[in-house]
Write the structure tokens for this entry.
Amino acid sequence: MFPKISKITENRQNISTATLIESSDQIIDNRLTQDEKRYFSLQLEKNEDCSLLKVPILLFYKKVGTSKEHYLALEAARTAGSKLYSKLKSAKIESVQLQNFCAGDYLSAFLEGLLLSVYTFDKYLKEKESFVLNEIFLIGEISPSEIDELLTLTKAVFAARDLVNEPLSYLTAQQFSKEIEKLGEIAGFSVEVFNKQKIEALKMGGLLAVNRGSIDPPTFNILEWKPNNAKNSKPIVLVGKGIVFDTGGLSLKPTPNSMDFMKTDMAGGAVVVTTLFALAQNKIPVHVVALVPATDNRPDGNAYVPGDIITMFDGTTVEIRNTDAEGRLILADALSYAKKYGPLLVVDYATLTGAADIVAGQYAAVAMGNTPANLEKLKSTGLDTFERLIEVPLWEEYAKPLKSKIADLNNLGVREAQSTIAGKFLEHFTDYEWIHIDSAGTPYLNEADSYRPAGGTGYGTRLLYHFIKRSFAM
Ligand code: BES
Ligand code: ZN
Ligand code: ZN
């Protein structure tokens, strides 16, 4: 499925060629006539990219605005990769060589954009996509280990997309655990799955309450990547929301534009699982644990109801005011469980509130936390990976609506500033350095956007991978 990638030293005449340039005088390909070069120059004045099909070869140019901020230029190179892929696909051209004439290291971003575009989810289709990009040749400075790393990270992103794309008819909580085990076997991280009995014995009241309306049992997944050469002595703990389908429970969601795409509600779980996959597969020297509580959220005879008071894993009591605010309940149990690791840092990732989508849409996730230096690093990694973050403060006032007269907390709060309120709810269960990422608008798109396909996007895996590698493995 993935193209074969090799480095070559010289431009091959008989292969389609894609070139990143800064200015039109870098159009020097000797396969082009003077007129064609002029055509390209004129096109590039109006557009950022252009191409010419000289059957059987495609010549593609992208002008990268290298004077812009570096992260924007990097993203332009990725977008060029995705444009190139559409052109190759429509011309059915199966091999291409990439080169970079810009000052700066844009070749790997160009390759990344191309690779991220190769994705299809055709498991349930009788007629599969027939086009396959077979071979990519790279001319320029990129090491074989960089190429390998990029391939592995792309595979991780594709695994995250697959997990989000799989409907509940396949991906129940138990199946999610099986998929996690499969990924663990491939990449070499360990996986322990707590079943319902164990979850009951541990008294994970949040996860159990949400699961009560389901006919499928919950799971609590513990993943660990602990290489001998890990740079950190206390682990990084990642926590991901694993609601394999969110109907809202008895506080039922309406179907159009709401419940209809709630198979995405385990996207946070998919992000942390595939981040571990990429870290382990690339043998990054860092000790990381991932916790994924998983269940669907459904109405049924025994479902939890508004008014219920539940006791969480750490003993906190919670008055349920809305069964659709279920994510915070399962995450809270996982965040309490994380304490036992004495973590260096905990990052949770969740499709927690519709308000995060209202704030940031498909172009960013909302972040908050109690560790400013880590948040700064995460946000700057967000720019470089173009999986960007908008930070909101966790001011004390936002905890007020979570008070209850009959329990320690209520699970709803008020509508205003709901993302922050949900964050304050989670904060109650933490006693360590912690970042919460609420990413409701990014994991799933109705229409493709550059190298992010329609359906599951895998947004977040590249962000967490690079953040952990940069901050803790160097
Ligand atoms: N899974 C949803 C949040 C969500 C919304 C994810 C849109 C992706 C896209 C979450 O469980 C939820 O239902 N949140 C409610 C909370 C409310 C009842 C306080 C919301 O945001 O409306
Ligand atoms: Zn919900
Ligand atoms: Zn949810």
